[in-house]
Amino acid sequence: SFQFFTMTSVDDFTSREWSHATSCRQPSRQYSEVMELLSLEGCEDLCRAVPLPFVLRNCAKIWANSKGSPKSYALSSPVSHIHSFISHNWSVGRFRKWWALSFHFNFQIAAASSLMATVLVTILTMLGILPFVRPSDDHIKGVWSRAVGIPVFFLVLLFGRNIAGYFNIRSPKVFVDKLCIHQSNKKIQRQGIMKLGAFLAHSDEMLILYTNVYLQKLWTVYEVAAFLLQQSASAYNMKVVPVSLVGMLLAAVWWSYLQGVTGIFLLISELNLAWSGLIGTLGGACYTAAVRTWQRDKLLMQERLLSFAVRECRCTVDGDRHIIYSNIAALVQALDVFDQIVRDELRPVFKAAFGWCSFEYYHYIFIGFAMTGTLALDYIAILPFSDSPRFHVAGALIWTHWTLIVWPVIFTSLEILMSFKLSYTGWKELLFSVGASLGLVVFPAGVYEWLTLYLMEKAADSNAALALILALGIISITWAIAALYKDACGATRERRRRRQLSGGNVVKKVTGSALPDEEKCSTLQGEGLEDENQTNKVEMTSSWPCHRGQLDCETAVGGSSAPIGEEAEATGDESNDVCLDLSLASI
Asked: Does the global pTM surpass 0.85?
């Protein structure tokens, strides 16, 4: 019955043989194997985490390679629970992980810091402490918000946690395999590897640094398996951070800053501002190409999830394959069952992370802030010195409208548009990308920009134009506040609901009475088959809050299409099949 542990080739081991191997085990052995994977009883010191600043220190130096040492292991310490379990592939570059982790943990505080810095320089300019620019043939201009805001954002984004660490400011504690599993003591290392499922059970969230190779690597797939079988894979406790998408957003913000700084330089030098527009056009073309590539990556991800098969995953050390398969066998009995779980559970989560809009609304707002939000603050900054206050008030409201409404609409429209005709290549691809982006996005945006600038010029003398601009500003600000408040309330409600469903403590699920014990398993063994109609589907009665609700027994046993009775004849033990299905499905 344990041919699985000595097999030489996965291809020689069919799903029915897998079912036979796992179903012949006694309930007590099944229970002990599951507890061995999911419980930390007797080995609590293995559950370790490392403060986030250590992970990001020195430009994320620890991600340069997978080689650990006793010194790196000493960076972590035993904990009762982990904030984030970081699931990643070592084949992904160090700097890409640095950007992705900084984006996930630091984006909101970096954006807030950038906003506060721009507000500060705006106040200093209004007080006359910072100078402004007065071109010979134009209105006076403020420049400090555009010059300061985005550098502060990147400084806090990439190095804020390191600075906080030096002042002993509390930071999240995360799990990184290299730092939290001993890499030189092989005995402790094996114990840590076998307890990955328990570490996930003690984690508040699972953070996936997703690339195209993520679902092709066996270790990361096993981490997903252990997580899916313990917690609900909602978008709030499984966070998917696409590494390439983060690079695209940060590049857009940086390019917007370069365009703004170029505009300041041209303004001071009294040169033609068309060069700044040229930089913006080149940046837009690069962003369009990046969006097109990302849409193809999303399509590839969906195809891989639809046809996911754990047997096709790659493993660097072939000997690890048997360890991972045995752990999956203890949790779900059959590879085919696990394949189906991944297809059913991961698709909604990945769809939520990779929907039509790749970013949240506040991400688009910040890209707009880098382009026109800082410009709006520069208009406000020189109001006390303005020779035409109506013009500067109108300018501030117009660029606020662009930041909160227009830019999010443009970026969202571009992403939706670039998701069509992904099969095009060569000249067709070029014509579609250029024609669609220019005709359906850039041209309408250009016309609307001309219209708003015309209104801004007219506002200096026309009360009607000023009133229209004031209405646009009020609508934009109201819309943004309502949208952000709705998102925040939705996230809060979901987190509260998840805490209530989990009883507030995931650890209780692993070590507490919610686990099916041997007596319960024996009781269920004698039930469930009395009614002939229950041979195809048995309703779970365990108190364990199962994330799958009900499980088809004919699917759960070996991935075979045969009903329980027919599968039992093949394995020779009907009652054990039912017991294993009920107890492990509830886990």
From this structure: no
